[in-house]
Amino acid sequence: LRVQTERRSQLVNITPQVQELLGRSEFTEGIALISVPHTTCALAVNEDEEGLKEDVLQLLSRLVPEAGPYEHNKVDNNAHAHLRSLLQLPYIALPISAGKLQLGSWQSLFLVEWDGPRQRMVLITLMGDVANGGKSP
Amino acid sequence: LRVQTERRSQLVNITPQVQELLGRSEFTEGIALISVPHTTCALAVNEDEEGLKEDVLQLLSRLVPEAGPYEHNKVDNNAHAHLRSLLQLPYIALPISAGKLQLGSWQSLFLVEWDGPRQRMVLITLMGDVANGGKSP
Amino acid sequence: LRVQTERRSQLVNITPQVQELLGRSEFTEGIALISVPHTTCALAVNEDEEGLKEDVLQLLSRLVPEAGPYEHNKVDNNAHAHLRSLLQLPYIALPISAGKLQLGSWQSLFLVEWDGPRQRMVLITLMGDVANGGKSP
Question: Rounded to the nearest 5°, which phi and psi values hold at A90?
Answer without folding.
Answer: -80, -10
